[in-house]
Amino acid sequence: MLTKKLPSLPSFLLLVSRRASHLTRQQYDVIVVGGGHAGTEAAAAAARVGAETLLVTQKIQTIGALSCNPSLGGVGKGQLVKEVDALDGLCGRAGDWAGIHFTILNRRKGPAVWGPRAQLDRQRYREFIQSELLGTPRLTVLESSVEELLVTEPNPEKTGRHRVAGIRLANETHAISASSVVLTTGTFLSGSLFVGQTTSPGGRIGDAPSSAGLSHTLKERLGLRIGRLKTGTPPRIVKDSVDLSLAELHPPDGHPTPFSFLNTHTRCKPEEQLPCYLTYTTPGVERVVRESLHLNCHIQQDTKGPRYCPSIESRVLRFPGRKHQVWLEPEGVTSDLLYPQGLSMTMPPDKQLCLIREIPAMHRAEIHTPGYGVQYDFVCPTQLSPALQVKSTQGLFLAGQINGTTGYEEAAAQGLWAGVNAARWALSMPPVALSRTESYIGVLIDDLVSRGVTEPYRMFTSRAEFRTSLRPDNADLRLTLKGFEEVGCVSSLRYTEAIRVRDNLQDAMEALETLALSTTTWRKKLPNIHISENKNTSLTGMNLLQYSDVSFEMLASVFPEYLSAYSEFSQRLKIEAVYRPHCDLQKKEIERIQKEENMSLPQDIDYLSLPVSMSQEVRDILNRVRPSTLGAATRLQGITPAAIVHLLNYVRHIG
Ligand code: FAD
């Protein structure tokens, strides 16, 4: 399916509006603010659902920009990419188009926690996303900065909530109205950049922060609770100045595995992939960090940064005397730069140069762009519903880094879901939610809206209780059918493909179940396999496939008339067989949780006057968060099982 022909960048950008006066309408169903990873998925998803959508972003050329590492996926994050793809989002196909080094991480563990990952060519990724947006019906892209969010005052006689009315652009007086607005401003909300002792306003290097007007509306008019977080990025290194012979070579997988369920191969051929390199810090690195601490404002701030992607300063200070990994990763096919993953830093540029030269492979390295840090405002996400709508403001949706997450994949997943719900709101359709039992996207959103964040949130497989069911290989079966039949964000082409896959898998599993033979007969047919069961036991093909040394191809070679038609699905069938006993056990638990998940809690419950048997603290938490389901209430920090029983009884009583 990789048949896409991309128009050359300059020609197609001319087709995208740069001026508000070029817009054919001044009223949209959905306006998305920000063209990062959340915003692009939100805009495309809203348009797919059927909403007339406007994407407003500061610079068209940075649509789809990878602000930090040029890579997509990984453990937990790869699952999100597969799910976004299963819902017809962009990032999986963009990864297949732009990937230059594909690996499956965690391969030594079971396929449920494999992490599909690709190193990306930055330019190709941007081009793909921009071209996709251009080709999306009902979507207009406008290059401008949103100065103000327009909201109506709450009407106490009606909902008592604010309602979104539209936006006003910088340097424009008139409004563009919309039923829904999705804010995806990333690290730009009151953003400040830090290098050494210098601080300047900015959302990312070379980009101004979001306007103060936007922050003002969120804080002062809507009264939203806002927090502050920080992150940083490493210097980019001139490739030719690095002695790669002093680093360990890490080749990609021999056969790149595409992210997208629509693709059978990636654009980059196996032999065209580029390697990564691994090297380590030395005691000299630690010395430079310590000597320059007094010149490093960012590291001195108390603001929380990403714990799982820390700066070299934080790593050295937390684990003194240790040798830390540094990955040298390509930035693109034609790029002259390397990205040193693990060396995010904010000391002055001359000290950055001293630091990298303490690593043998970089003893003569040159810096192209220094590393820097950014601090930004985020909106505490417990103020959102599972549709990612601000509870106190009808029609206002938030997605991405603005909700306290970090990472492209987390942003893309939220963006898609916020875009879907913004469109449904605008088109007077009920909101839709994804549960923890059916997707990582559900886990991500539930964690955000019910627990909130105290540090930048990133996805891990350990966050998902049902990870053996939520596998990267089966995201299409979990989400594509629902995405088409219930949500409306999946094309008929993708739906037809998912139905074909589902039917073939079902037929193949039925065929495997029908092949029931005694262990003696199996031993004769597959003499090289060690079958532990005693000789009178009857085993089906599905049972046999659970053995680690039995592949589907082996069974198909013994029974070609029954099985060879399904060879295309051999790996998926093997995984299904291995996980089936686990998943069958989990099914009951999932059904119980789904019942609980689905029990809605009325939004007008007066929590503060609930029975006194519930502590004041519990009542305060419930009143502040206003969980939309009993399941969400269960996961709130500080809510005891006893409180849940009281709440359940109360809701049954008033229902
Ligand atoms: P972004 O990708 O930041 O996109 C926001 C978009 O909104 C931009 O296009 C901007 O131009 C636009 N915008 C903002 N305000 C307005 C406005 N008023 N009007 C119009 N458009 C507007 N992630 C990691 O996982 N690990 C890391 O180590 C890491 N380090 C990072 C270091 C730095 C310096 C930065 C900047 C980011 C880093 N990230 C890291 C975060 C990663 O880039 C984000 O998680 C991801 O890009 C978030 O996507 P987003 O769509 O929410 O926001």
Overview of the structural elements:
With 655 residues, the chain is α+β, with helices and mostly antiparallel strands. Among the domains are: 236-372, Beta Barrel (Elongation Factor Tu (Ef-tu), domain 3), CATH 2.40.30; 493-589, Arc Repressor Mutant, subunit A, CATH 1.10.10; 599-654, GidA associated domain, C-terminal subdomain (DNA polymerase, domain 1, Orthogonal Bundle), CATH 1.10.150. Helices cover 36% and strands 18% of the residues. The chain has 22 helices and 23 strands. Strands 1, 2, 6, 7, 8, 9, 20 and 21 form an 8-stranded mixed beta sheet that branches. A 6-stranded antiparallel beta sheet has the order 14-15-16-17-13-18, with no helix packed on it. Strands 11-10-19-12 form a 4-stranded antiparallel beta sheet. Strand 8 and strand 9 (175-183) form a beta hairpin. Flavin-adenine dinucleotide (FAD) is lined by residues 33-39, 56-58, 62, 67-68, 145-146, 184-188, 203-204, 207, 210-211, 214, 231-233, 306, 309, 344, 374, 400-401, 406-408, 411. Residues 33-39, 56-58, 62, 67-68, 145-146, 184-188, 203-204, 207, 210-211, 214, 231-233, 306, 309, 344, 374, 400-401, 406-408, 411 line the site of flavin-adenine dinucleotide.
Ends distance: 51 Å
Count of helical stretches: 22
Share of residues in helices: 25-40%
In the CATH scheme, the class of the domain at 236-372 would be: Mainly Beta
The counted number of beta strands is 23
Using the 3D structure, state the CATH architecture of the domain at 236-372.
Answer: Beta Barrel
Shape descriptor: globular
The description of the largest β-sheet is: 8 strands, mixed
Family: Belongs to the MnmG family.
InterPro entries: FAD/NAD-bd_sf, GIDA_C_N, MnmG, MnmG-rel, MnmG_C, MnmG_C_subdom, MnmG_C_subdom_sf, MnmG_N
GO cellular component, one term: mitochondrion
Pfam families: GIDA (PF01134), GIDA_C_1st (PF21680), SAM_GIDA_C (PF13932)
